[in-house]
Every structure is written in structure tokens, then in C-alpha cells.
Amino acid sequence: MKKFAGLALALVLVLALAGASSAADGKLGTISADINVLATIGPYAKIDTVSPVQFGELLGKVGIYTANGLEEPTGTAEQFYHRAAPVFGVSPDLYVGNNDGYGWFAIETNCDVIVSISFANAGWLTSPTVFGVAKFGEPSTVLAWASSNQDLGGRPTSFTHTYMKGVQKYGIDGAIYIRSISEQEAKAYSGTLTVTVSK
Questions:
Q1: Which of 29, 124, 143, 150 would be a feasible disulfide site paired with 128, CB 3.0-4.6 Å?
Q2: What is the mean pLDDT of residues 109-134?
Q3: Which DSSP string do the residues of 134-199 spell out, in sequence order?
Q4: Apex CA 174: angle with CA 55 and CA 156, to 5°?
Q5: What rounded mean pLDDT belongs to the chain?
Q6: pLDDT interval class at 137 (50, 70, 90)
Q7: pLDDT tens digit string along 21-80?
Q8: Integer Cα distance of 45 and 25 in angstroms
Q9: Are strands 95-99 and 103-109 parallel, antiparallel or unpaired?
């Protein structure tokens, strides 16, 4: 039985080799065969450029202060406070001033990716602060939020960047709500926004 199985296996192997070589057999002239060429590109992304969010010097007066300007030239630089006020749970009438200091970053990918934003507030104001990310050209659609000392109420902190040819820029607007004059000491403050790109 073992001898028969071995003979059958050898016969199958000979037939398989004969079949593989017969595809390029020919008596005269030119022969050709097509050979598949395969490649796989893995997912890849690059955060190309970043620019800081700059609130400038705030008065210290009670109210909402913004660092934006992403709306230009299609709107006014003060518009982000309309989107920030509901996050703070206050009226847009509390708007005090704006610094045309929106930040931005640019990414390029070869696939759909998740873009997340977070804020490390060590060394930052006690006053509630929010940041909103929007695609350039679509400033009124906030795709993701980050905050300091403020509950975002279920608002998204990430979004899907859909694959496209070329680099896409995203702007970051910011808003600070000073609730009382003595809420923080008069001095310079800084924090860190982190943009994370993942598959």
C-alpha cells in the first residue's frame, strides 16, 4: 500500500511539472509567458507641518476670549466664540476679544486614518478652555474637540481623515472662558496640544 501511495504521489508530481512547463512550450518561433508581479503598500501617514495656537495677552476681564481666524477670508475672525459658548454653557454675549492666532497642522496619508486631539494642561490657566479642529475651508464644522477644565459633553475628540491625494490642512481654534478676575494670576501660561494619527 505504501509503495502504491508513493508511486501515485510521484506520478502527480511529474504531471504537475509537465503542466507547468507546457505553458511555455513551442516548436518554432517566439514563445512568451505572463508572470504576475505583486506588491503591497502598507499604511503610512505624516504630520507635515504644525503652527501654534496663540491667544495673545488677555485683559483678565470676565468673558470669552478666542484664538482663531480660521474663518478668514470667508467670515469674521470672531466667529469661533459662537461655537465655544455652548460648550462652556454660557451666552455668546460674554465674548470679550479675539487674537487672530489660530493654529494648524497638515497631514498626508495613503489610507483612511483616525485623527485625535488632546490637551496637556500642566502649566495652563484654571479657566475652562476648549479647542476645535476643522478642515480648512469648512470652519463651521468642528470635527474634534479638546479641553482643559471643561466637560465636552460627549463632543468628539477624534475624526476620520479620508484618504485623498495630497496634503490636507486642518485649523485649530481656541476659546478661554474667564469666570472671575482672580481666577488666575497675571503671568504667562502654556500647555501642549497633541495630534495623534492612527489606523
A1: 150
A2: 96
A3: EETT-TTS--EEEEESS--TT--SEEEE---SS-EEEEEEEEEEE-SGGGS-SS----EEEEEEE-
A4: 160
A5: 86
A6: confident
A7: 445 666 778 889 999 999 999 999 999 888 999 999 998 899 999 998 766 555 555 589
A8: 47
A9: unpaired
Contact present, 156 and 145 (Cβ < 8 Å)? yes
**0.90 cut: is pTM over it?**
no
> Within a 13 Å sphere around the CA of 188, how many CA atoms are in the beta-carbon half?
3
What are the φ and ψ backbone dihedral angles of 163, each rounded to 5 degrees? -50, 135
User: Could you report how far apart the first and last alpha carbons of the chain are, in Å?
Assistant: 55
CA nearest neighbour of 176 among 95, 104, 116: 95
For the chain, the domains span 47-198
> Residue 20 carries which side chain, given as an amino acid letter?
A
Q: Which fold has domain 47-198?
A: Immunoglobulin-like (2.60.40)
Is residue 40 classed as helix, strand or coil in its secondary structure? coil
Least confident of 8-22, 64-78, 163-177: 8-22
